Amino acid sequence: MKLGTLRDVFVVPNTAVQRDGQNISVFIAMRETVDGESKMVARKKAVTVIRTEADVAIVDGLENGEQLVTSGQSTLFDGAAIRIDDGTEKKPEVEPSKAEVEAE
User: Fold this and answer.
1) Mean confidence (pLDDT) of the chain
2) CA-based torsion, 4, 12, 58, 65: positive or negative
3) Residues sharing a CB contact under 8 Å with residue 101, sequence separation 6 or more, in sequence order
4) Architecture of domain 10-75
5) How far is CA 104 from the centre of its chain?
6) Four-point Cα dihedral 34, 35, 37, 43, nearest 10
7) Could you report the per-residue pLDDT of 49-83, keeping only the tens digit for each?
8) pLDDT at 21 over 70
């Protein structure tokens, strides 16, 4: 049975939403200046949600353009320094080590 269609909501993975009693929140990534240095930090933000079959629809509390933290939330706190892994960071190339073996 279809009850209706939600419009202008953000559908996010269930794992992105934190529940603490009656409080529901997400972490968003924000660039802030901390001690004169620009850093990415996680900010906790209260949201209103409606559960769907597999995901969660956030109907209030998020704005267009905000970056939602979707992994690692269990260790975050409001203002925690974070690093965004968008998959484009180049990994250093490692050459296999060469072992020299001397015959006796």
Assistant:
1) 80
2) negative
3) none
4) Beta Barrel (2.40)
5) 57
6) -10
7) 888 777 888 888 999 889 999 888 888 999 999 98
8) yes
